[in-house]
Each structure stands twice: as C-alpha cells, then as structure tokens.
Write a structure and sequence with these properties.
Shape of chain B: elongated
Strand order of the largest sheet of chain B: 2-1-4
Number of strands of chain B: 8
Strand order of the largest sheet of chain A: 2-3-1-4
Structural class of chain B: mainly alpha
Strand content of chain A: 15-25%
Number of helices of chain B: 8
Distance between the termini of chain B: 25 Å
Shape of chain A: elongated
Oligomer: heterodimer
Helix content of chain B: 55-70%
Strand content of chain B: 5-15%
Helix content of chain A: 40-55%
C-alpha cells in the first residue's frame, strides 16, 4: 500500500478531498494520513498531492511484515517470550539479560 | 463627522451618501488612506477606526464567513474586552514564527537511484550476453580474443555502475534523514497552527459570551427579525439583523455605512452613520 502523510492544513484538506472523491482507492484514513492501494491510480493520486504540496506530503510504500521471512528468529522469540512473561513489571532490558535475548541497543543497531 | 464631496461639505452624525460612491472608496475614506487618487472626490473627517470596526462597518453585507459569534466578538473587542487566551495565543504565534522547516526535495536522489539501478541491470545483461558469446566461441573453437576483451570491458563498466549505485543509495539515505528532520519541524508547525486556530475560536466564543446579554437587548431595538438563543451560536434569524444588533452593542467611534434600507433614522445604532437608500 502507499502511505500518504500530510504536514500542513492545506495538504491535509487536499488529502481529505481526494479520499472523499476516490473512496475505492483508499484503504484507510487516519486524519492527516491515509493508505492508498498500490496501484498506478493510487500512485497517481499520491503523486498529484506531492506535486501540489511539495515536501508537505510524504509518500511511503508499505508491505505487510512477514516475520518469518524478514525478522531473525532471535527477535521473534524475544517478542513472544516478553509478551507472555509472568512478571508483568519487568522492563525488557532486564528481562533480556536474564534469558539471553538480544538487547534493545543491539536490535536498534541492526536494520531488518 | 464631516464629509467633503464634489466641492460640498456636510456635517453631522448621520449623513446621506451619493449613490455613485463605491464601498471601496468609503472604506479608504474612513481609514483616511492619504495615497488615494479618489481623494479629490471624497474626503471624510472622522474618528479613526478601532478594534472591531473592520468586521462591523457594513451591517448590510456582513463578512460572509463571519458568524454571529464573530460579530459579537468584534463588538466586544471594540468595547475593550480582551480574551483570556490572548497571551497564550501570542506565545503560540511567536513559536510559529520561529519554526523554519527547510525546503527538502529528494526527487533528484530518487531519480539517481532508479537510473543507476537500471544501468546496473542493463550492464549485467550485457555481461551475461558476452559470456554466452565467449562460451559459444570456445566450444566451436573460434577466435576468442575479441570476446575476451569485450567481456573484461563490460565487467569493468558493470563494476563502475555498481559503485555508482551504492553511492546514489547512500546519497538518498542521507537526503531521507534530512527530510525526516524537516518533517518533524513541519509536524510541530502544524500542531501549533491547530492550537492557534483553537485558541482563536475559544477567544471568539468567550468574547461573544461577554456581550450576549447586550446582544439580546439590542435585537429588541434594531429593525429586523432575529431571535437570540442561549448563546451566540443559538441565534435564529438573518445575518443583517444580527450585524445591526452587533453594531449597537459595539462601541464604535468611526462611522458605519448603512445600506440596509431598514431605517428612517439610524439613531438606534448609537454610532455615526453614512447611509444611502437600499437599491
């Protein structure tokens, strides 16, 4: 999908108008942001906005995260283990040390 | 006030206007803009317009996007009322001035990445093609010198293209980082603008509420059908009646222009009036 985010009132209003006029291409609306279908028409709508409003419109391309293909097993295991922990008040950094999971700092330093 | 027009001088607090004078000319005359070429035909000696005058001076044609709340807020300001939001609004506006998101355009960087990527793909194919040619020549025992040279050449160009692509990607990454920082500034600015709008709206509501009682009384006195509700937003009736009542509530020293045609005499507005017949 294409994520369109606006940064001024005029761009935000323009996005709102586009969403209203082309509901079939809009997957979700979030106020000053929206998700469009990643079709040529979706790209057309997004690029029109960027031509009109320049850097006040941000366009990103999203993809569903397939954690099995894109995320190392250690990170997946850490996420599962922490979400299902017994002691709810343990911060992750401490939790990780005790159990050999990757530290937040280490994970921040590595791109997917 | 005193009106000089076409060589005549008329004095009074309610003066009839020749129909040939435009609203724009009147506004300039009231504001006493001296650089006006029409000065020869019309000059007005009157008090300078104070706060609220700009919104209230033409009750026959109230500003189209100004609601009853806006009209009453203008009237309140003319009486010297100040909204409690004023200081905070001033702070927000000052903070807005201080933000300067720099212009960012990553288009050139994106295009460079796309073009260098396409070049790499083309050269990969070229290398593969030449390799195939070289292989075919080897198996048939044909001369391979030329193909060998071609291959080395193509591999060299491919390597250069790959280096260029890496450089283009790094340039794009750096540009994206700057763009993200600028977006943060833009977002901050948007939040401040929304905050300023909300404060202005709240200020107008507060000011209007402070003169609402006087508005109700004024509606009973000015010509027209209008009924006040519990607050300014609850008004039911036409814009012109509301505007006339707002003029009566206000404390204006500079004249208003009455083209409503509703008055025999506009004394009830309690303000100097320049009037002309409703067309």
């Amino acid at each position: 999908m294409l994520l369109v985010v606006t940064y001024t009132r005029r761009a935000r209003t323009a996005l709102r108008n586009v969403c209203r006029a082309h509901e079939e291409t809009v997957v979700r609306r979030f106020g000053r942001a929206a998700l469009f279908d990643a079709t040529e028409f979706g790209a057309f709508l997004a690029l029109r906005l960027r031509v009109e409003h320049g850097a006040d419109v941000q366009i990103e391309r999203t993809a569903p995260l397939n954690e099995f293909a894109d995320v190392p097993p250690a990170v997946r295991e850490a996420a599962t283990a922490y979400a299902t922990r017994e002691r709810r008040h343990t911060p992750y950094a401490k939790f990780a040390v005790g159990r050999g999971h990757p530290s937040p700092a280490a994970m921040r330093g590595r791109d997917l | 006030m005193r009106l000089h027009v076409d060589g005549d001088v008329v004095e009074g607090s309610a003066i009839e206007l020749p129909t040939t004078i435009t609203a724009a000319t009147l506004r300039r005359a009231i504001r006493a803009d001296r650089d006006d070429p029409d000065e020869d035909t019309l000059r007005l000696d009157c008090s300078r317009p104070g706060p609220g005058h700009a919104q209230l001076w033409q009750p026959a044609t109230p500003p189209p996007r100004l609601s009853v709340v806006g009209l009453l807020a203008a009237a309140a300001r003319s009486r010297g009322y100040v909204a409690s939001q004023r200081d905070e609004l001033a702070d927000v506006l000052a903070a807005l001035e201080a933000i300067e998101p720099r212009p960012t355009d990553t288009t050139a960087a994106r295009r460079a990445v796309a073009e260098s990527g396409a070049a790499v793909e083309r050269l990969r194919e070229t290398v593969a093609t030449i390799r195939g040619r070289l292989q075919a020549r080897r198996t048939t025992g044909a001369a391979t010198d030329e193909a060998t040279v071609d291959l080395a050449d193509a591999i060299g160009r491919l390597s250069e293209a790959e280096t260029e692509r890496v450089a283009a990607e790094q340039t794009l990454e750096a540009a994206e980082r700057r763009a993200r920082a600028n977006r943060t500034r833009r977002e901050h600015r948007l939040r401040l603008r929304d905050r300023a709008d909300n404060l202005e709206r709240a200020a107008r509501r507060e000011l209007a509420a402070r003169v609402h009682r006087q508005f109700v009384a004024a509606l009973a006195v000015v010509p027209g059908d209008g009924r006040a509700g519990g607050d300014a937003a609850g008004y039911v009736g036409d814009d012109v009646t509301a505007a006339l009542a707002a003029v009566r509530v206000a404390s204006l020293d500079a004249p208003v222009v009455d083209e409503t045609g509703r008055f025999a005499s506009a004394d009830c507005l309690d303000v100097p009036v320049l009037w002309r017949s409703f067309k």
